Amino acid sequence: MATPETRQKPNILVTGSPGTGKSTLAAILAEKLGFDQIECSKEIREHGLYEEYDERMQTHVFDEDKLLDHIEERMDSESGGVVVDFHGCDFFPQRWFDIVVVLRCDNTKLYDRMVARGYPPEKIRENVQCEIFNSIGEEARESYDEEIVFEVYSETVEQMNENADKVVDLFSQWMQNRQ
């Protein structure tokens, strides 16, 4: 089982409310760094890692244990170099991640993005409330060492590119600290 001390490359978690750009940033990082990407929502759908489908929220209710078991081997690899994106973060083992990026977004922009995706009103309301209270940022700070948690705004293409550059810099610092 790999740990931050034994991994050759860091594992990165990109988290935030739906619509903040997690999958987009994770894909950019995977490409720039030559890392593997695990888009948890996609894995849940494609591999049946859910308990049921919630019609009201129009989403799969994922099974934490099934998801963790499904990605455990990749996350515990000594090579590291995995970017994971998901809207939750408190159930992942702390040892899996060396850098945690929490994406934030103005509520009005987030609302508009979710409407454009066709989310039902209850799902939009719940996710906007999560963003207002910064629930995911709080979850990340409670679940991981604060020095590895970075909150950034993800409202424009320019910010997305700046965020990618910042994480690439964090990767470089992590690698330098290993030597």
UniProtKB/TrEMBL annotation:
<feature type="region of interest" description="LID">
    <location>
        <begin position="116"/>
        <end position="126"/>
    </location>
</feature>
<dbReference type="GO" id="GO:0016887">
    <property type="term" value="F:ATP hydrolysis activity"/>
</dbReference>
<dbReference type="GO" id="GO:0005524">
    <property type="term" value="F:ATP binding"/>
</dbReference>
<dbReference type="GO" id="GO:0006364">
    <property type="term" value="P:rRNA processing"/>
</dbReference>
<keyword id="KW-0067">ATP-binding</keyword>
<keyword id="KW-0808">Transferase</keyword>
<dbReference type="GO" id="GO:0042274">
    <property type="term" value="P:ribosomal small subunit biogenesis"/>
</dbReference>
<keyword id="KW-0539">Nucleus</keyword>
<keyword id="KW-0418">Kinase</keyword>
<feature type="binding site">
    <location>
        <position position="23"/>
    </location>
    <ligand>
        <name>ATP</name>
    </ligand>
</feature>
<feature type="binding site">
    <location>
        <position position="19"/>
    </location>
    <ligand>
        <name>ATP</name>
    </ligand>
</feature>
<dbReference type="GO" id="GO:0005634">
    <property type="term" value="C:nucleus"/>
</dbReference>
<comment type="subunit">
    <text>Monomer and homodimer. Interacts with small ribosomal subunit protein uS11. Not a structural component of 43S pre-ribosomes, but transiently interacts with them by binding to uS11.</text>
</comment>
<dbReference type="GO" id="GO:0004017">
    <property type="term" value="F:AMP kinase activity"/>
</dbReference>
<dbReference type="InterPro" id="IPR020618">
    <property type="entry name" value="Adenyl_kinase_AK6"/>
</dbReference>
<keyword id="KW-0547">Nucleotide-binding</keyword>
<feature type="binding site">
    <location>
        <position position="21"/>
    </location>
    <ligand>
        <name>ATP</name>
    </ligand>
</feature>
<dbReference type="InterPro" id="IPR027417">
    <property type="entry name" value="P-loop_NTPase"/>
</dbReference>
<feature type="region of interest" description="NMPbind">
    <location>
        <begin position="39"/>
        <end position="62"/>
    </location>
</feature>
<keyword id="KW-0690">Ribosome biogenesis</keyword>
<dbReference type="GO" id="GO:0005737">
    <property type="term" value="C:cytoplasm"/>
</dbReference>
<protein>
    <recommendedName>
        <fullName>Adenylate kinase isoenzyme 6 homolog</fullName>
        <ecNumber>2.7.4.3</ecNumber>
    </recommendedName>
</protein>
<keyword id="KW-0963">Cytoplasm</keyword>
<dbReference type="Pfam" id="PF13238">
    <property type="entry name" value="AAA_18"/>
</dbReference>
<comment type="similarity">
    <text>Belongs to the adenylate kinase family. AK6 subfamily.</text>
</comment>
<feature type="binding site">
    <location>
        <position position="22"/>
    </location>
    <ligand>
        <name>ATP</name>
    </ligand>
</feature>
<feature type="binding site">
    <location>
        <position position="117"/>
    </location>
    <ligand>
        <name>ATP</name>
    </ligand>
</feature>
<keyword id="KW-0698">rRNA processing</keyword>
<comment type="function">
    <text>Broad-specificity nucleoside monophosphate (NMP) kinase that catalyzes the reversible transfer of the terminal phosphate group between nucleoside triphosphates and monophosphates. Has also ATPase activity. Involved in the late cytoplasmic maturation steps of the 40S ribosomal particles, specifically 18S rRNA maturation. While NMP activity is not required for ribosome maturation, ATPase activity is. Associates transiently with small ribosomal subunit protein uS11. ATP hydrolysis breaks the interaction with uS11.</text>
</comment>
<feature type="binding site">
    <location>
        <position position="24"/>
    </location>
    <ligand>
        <name>ATP</name>
    </ligand>
</feature>
